[in-house]
Amino acid sequence: MLSKSPTEQYTYVKNCKETTFFSGIPLVDLSKPDAKSLIVNACEEFGFFKVINHGVSMEAISKLECEAMNFFSLPLIEKEKAGPANPFGYGNKSIGHNGDVGWLEYLLLSTNLEYNSPTLSSAFGQNNENFRSVLDDYMCGVRKMACEILDFMAEGMNIQPKNVFSKLLMDKHSDSLFRMNHYPACPQQGDDENIIGFGEHTDPQIISLLRSNNTSGLQISLRDGTWISVPPDHTSFFINVGDSLQVMTNGRFRSVRHRVVANGLKSRLSMIYFVGPPLSEKIAPLPSLMKGKESLYKEFTWFEYKNSNYGSRLADNRLGHFERIAAS
Ligand SMILES: C=C1C[C@]23C[C@@]1(O)CC[C@H]2[C@@]12CC[C@H](O)[C@@](C)(C(=O)O1)[C@H]2[C@@H]3C(=O)O
Ligand SMILES: O=C(O)CCC(=O)C(=O)O
Ligand SMILES: [Fe+2]
């Protein structure tokens, strides 16, 4: 269980309309022919959409959720054996390297399970083999869905070849991450102000595929800066556009700012697959999307972007550093 020591500084946000759920989140049925155009529209307008008929079995989802809850129910001293979170492992409250804290605990993993530290295996003890196989099944299902969505994005924008995005995920050097966040019910949650579970930020990768239990908390920022609450749906996936895809589409797709507000009554469990390119990959607007337009961004490698992120706070605009000043 998390508790707040007097020295910890949590971020509070005004409790404005957060329990009024937004009904306009784009919904994409991956089995329907209009999926491609709906995805492109959603990425342009929101950088965010919900997916049904995603192909990930409820069995794989439930098994992993069960493993995750078993892990987060362990005594802190046992969970800490899987730590620290940097680069991969168990983290508690602290996010990143520069003083961000949230009302959560988490496991941050490489999707290439070989890269995770041996301390992770030891924290799972005799259950380690089972955990690995359940995790592998879930990640395979999500990777397949991610490929389909990335191909739909390219097709929806008439980009050739259609695997221009998905090949980055399928590359054996893809720097993708997997994260399980556990937000315990937060007794300190006030009526006028909310404690932040995960502070506002954009995801640096290409896309993130998020699934959670039925507890609310996720909010996204609209174009005009309004924060809206995403109605939870434990049977669906939510897809975020990340910074790298915003750059590759020269700003056509929007890297969505999002955050999680702690829930006073129920715990939230989320699992997120972050699709990252290989470290050496050059991230720049795709020539086929330029057609005489100027590039809004300086080219960088994913390694350079990650390095520059290292010194940032969660809420920083990390792409700002790579924006080109338009010639007048
Ligand atoms: C402050 C930070 C934490 C973060 C890395 C960063 O420097 C900036 C982005 C953060 C984020 C957001 C999406 C993912 O949850 C994450 C794993 C990522 O790749 O970028 C986190 C990083 C983290 O928690 O370490
Ligand atoms: O836990 C969630 O629902 C979202 C967390 C998130 O945005 C992240 O881990 O990057
Ligand atoms: Fe995120």
Automatic annotation (TrEMBL):
Pathway: Plant hormone biosynthesis; gibberellin biosynthesis; Hormone biosynthesis. It comes from the Eukaryota. Pfam families: 2OG-FeII_Oxy, DIOX_N. It catalyses: gibberellin A1 + 2-oxoglutarate + O2 = gibberellin A8 + succinate + CO2. Its EC number is 1.14.11.13. Residues 173-277 form the Fe2OG dioxygenase domain. Its cofactor is Fe cation. InterPro entries: DIOX_N, IPNS-like_FE2OG_OXY, IPNS-like_sf, Iron_ascorbate_oxido_reductase, Oxoglu/Fe-dep_dioxygenase_dom. It is an enzyme of class 1 (oxidoreductase). Keywords: Dioxygenase, Iron, Metal-binding, Oxidoreductase. One of its GO terms (molecular function) is gibberellin 2-beta-dioxygenase activity. The keyword Iron applies. Catalyzes the 2-beta-hydroxylation of several biologically active gibberellins, leading to the homeostatic regulation of their endogenous level. Catabolism of gibberellins (GAs) plays a central role in plant development. Converts GA9/GA20 to GA51/GA29 and GA4/GA1 to GA34/GA8. Belongs to the iron/ascorbate-dependent oxidoreductase family. GA2OX subfamily. This is gibberellin 2beta-dioxygenase.
